Each structure stands twice: as structure tokens, then as C-alpha cells.
Amino acid sequence: MSNDKKLRWGILGAARVNERLLPAIIEAPNSSLVAIASRRKGAAKATLEKYAPCHGDAACYDNLESLITDKNVDAIYCPMANEEHITWALKAINAGKHVLIEKPMALTVKDIEKIEVAAIKNNVKVMEGFMYRFHPQHARVKEIVDSGLIGDVLSARASYSFLMRPARMYRINRGMRDGGGALWDIGPYAIHSLRWAMGYAHGAKNNKPAEPVAAVAHAKLNEHGADTVLSGVLDFGSDAEGRARFGHFDISFERSRKSEYEIIGTKGWVKCHAAWVFQNDVPVISWALEDGKYAEERFAPSNHFNLEIEHFSDCVLNDKTPLLTFADAKANCEALEMTLKSLS
Ligand SMILES: NC(=O)c1ccc[n+]([C@@H]2O[C@H](COP(=O)([O-])OP(=O)(O)OC[C@H]3O[C@@H](n4cnc5c(N)ncnc54)[C@H](OP(=O)(O)O)[C@@H]3O)[C@@H](O)[C@H]2O)c1
Questions:
Q1: Torsion (CA) 182, 183, 187, 188 in degrees, nearest 10
Q2: Which among 10, 31, 64, 323 counts the fewest CB atoms within 10 Å?
Q3: What SS3 state is found at 79?
């Protein structure tokens, strides 16, 4: 294992998201970056030089297997394309590495089960990379709901959109069933947030998400079969008093930026204004009550990528259970699969 209580990380793939995660690994006090790999010649080195110019001592590989078998690597961050997570996560786990897998962990619940079985067999930690959960603003939203301020939670809405730049077209260059499009790209955040939000409840002691029993969606598909706009409803069943509980989500690559969710109860609502994209956004939540009371709460800037890396390293180094479990990953994927199925 690592020296002086630092987890030694390797990065599998010269993906764009390394812009965020590579500095996070370097900055986390309990982590160090020891290697990065890409299948494209020179891409690993170029990524390291771009995002960490003073960190030239990390090994740069032009193939992925060398990183997986590198004995200096304790844990692997896997930012491969969505449809490749299953293959490379299994290779890394079977080589005895702990793995932080970008969202979505895989494209089917069956594949997540394979990852879970391999993780148990190899006694390694695995977590799905929902970095946003580590931002303190969400714990505050939960606290507000659990205090009973907005009454019983009956509905939640999540909206995630931005204008796709031409350089990012690779996100929609393959069909939904192959991991392309908005549902697999930004849909996991919206659905994850709705599940967790609908799980908050007055007097709640635990932190368990609620699970939808059904999903329906409409989508606009491009020429590759990738959704560029999708709007869906998750049915969370009825509460003890027979009141309907729905979650609504709305994701798009064609509209101006929205990155927010809100929770609507019987007495009021609470809203998180910058949920998943926080760069240059001031984290702010607001709430309002039936009697007209309204409040805004602002948070000091906080980097959720850094917090995610610190958390996962801590779990490995100190044998703790990651905040985001396999049960959560499977339930999120089940909701994504239900949504996808409703389109056909
Ligand atoms: N947590 C977040 O905030 C966040 C944000 C964005 C994306 N994500 C997730 O992170 C994962 C990666 O997303 P991404 O948008 O960063 O993906 P990406 O840039 O398309 O990279 C995905 C993989 O494709 C290969 N690749 C990258 N650029 C390429 C190019 N120009 N030509 C050919 N192959 C190329 C890389 O593997 P090689 O280096 O081996 O070629 C890379 O690992 C996805 O699962 C996504 O859902 C998370």
C-alpha cells in the first residue's frame, strides 16, 4: 500500500474530465498521482503537462494495461467513455486495484452486479463518481427538509442543460443504447438528485434515497440515435396518505445553462441553484414557505472534486465504506434503464 498515508492513484484514460480530477488528486492531502495512461500516443503525457505542469514525476503510459499492472498504483480513477467503464473497471479490480468509476458506473444493472462481485472477490473499494454529493450545500438541503420546514415531500424537479459546443460533439456521436447522449451523460445526476431528494423526510435520521416504481420520458434523438433533449417523470408511488409523489427531470444540450433541483413539500419548497456545475457559480440555496417567508443561504466556495477524492482515499486508507454504495449505483442505473425503456 502507500507510503506516509497517501493513496497512490493512477488515471486510466486521457479524458477531458481530467481537467477537474487530475488537480483534485494532486491537491488532496491523502493522495498522490503516480501514473496516467492513454491508448493514444503522447496523450497521457500531454494531459499531465496540461493540468499539472509541475508534476512530471508521474509515469505516463501509451497503453492502459501498463497502468493496471503498475505495482506503484493502489487506486485507479476510471474516466473512460460510459460504455467502456465495465470492461476497464473489471480489469482494474481483478488486478487488485481500488477503483473510482465515473458516472454512470455502467450501462446496465447486470454489469454493475459484475463489478460488485469482482470487488468483493478482490477485496477492493469501488465507488461511482457522483462528486456533487460531497458539496456541503446538499447536506444543508437535507437538513432543511428533515427539519419539517417545507412539510411532507411530494415532488422534486431537476433541470440540467447547457449548449453543446462543437468540440464536445463526441458526447452525442453514438446512440443511447451505446452510452451516448444526454441521458447517460447528465441524466445520471438529475436522477440521482431526485432519488435522494425524494428520500428526505421530516424527522429522517438516515440518508436513504427513495426509489421510483416507474418512469416515462420523451426525447429528441439526433441522427446517431443520441438524445439531445430529454424530459422524464419518475413515479415514486404514493405516501401513507395516498398522495402522489413524482420526480420530474429535464435535460438538454440545446439550452442555456441550468444546474438546479428543487424539492416541493406541503408547506413550501427548497431549491439548490448550482447543483452539479459549480465553476464560477456561487453555491446558493433558497427556500420559501406558504406564509410568504423566503430565504437565501450562500456557501463559501467548495471544490466537490477535491472532497470526493479525499473521501475515497480515506475509505481505502482507513478501511471505511464509501458514501456512495453499490446499492445506490444499481438503483440509479435501474431508474436510467426504466427511462430508456420507456422511450422504445
Ligand atoms: N464528474 C464529472 O463532473 C464529469 C464530467 C464530465 C464527464 N464525466 C464522466 O467522465 C467520463 C469521461 O467523460 P469525458 O467527457 O471526459 O470523456 P472523453 O474526453 O470523451 O474521454 C473518454 C475516453 O475517450 C478517450 N478519448 C478522449 N479524447 C479522445 C480523442 N480526442 N480521440 C479519441 N479518444 C479520446 C480517452 O481514452 P484514451 O486516452 O485511452 O484514448 C478517454 O478516457 C464519462 O463517463 C463521463 O460521463 C464526469
A1: -120
A2: 323
A3: coil
Interaxial angle between packed helices 136-146 and 187-199, expressed in degrees from 0 to 180 and rounded to the nearest 10: 30
**Which atom belonging to ligand 1 lies closest to the Cα atom of 82?**
45
CA dist 80 and 101 (Å) reads 9
Parallel/antiparallel/unpaired status of strands 75-78 and 98-102: parallel
Residue 81 Cα distances to 65, 87, 173, 185, angstroms:
17, 11, 12, 10
Task: Show the CA angle centred on residue 109, arms to residues 107 and 115, nearest 5°.
Answer: 85
Cβ atoms of residues 343 and 126 within 8 Å: no
Q: Is 277 in the pocket of ligand 1 (CB under 6 A)?
A: no
Q: Is 13 in the pocket of ligand 1 (CB under 6 A)?
A: yes
pLDDT, averaged per 10 consecutive residues of the chain (344 residues), comes to: 79 96 96 97 97 89 98 98 97 98 98 98 98 96 96 97 81 92 97 97 84 98 96 96 97 95 98 84 93 95 94 98 98 98 92
For residue 121, the cross-strand partners are none
Q: Is the pTM of this model over 0.85?
A: yes
Q: Which among 24, 149, 109, 208 has a CA at the least distance from the CA of 11?
A: 24
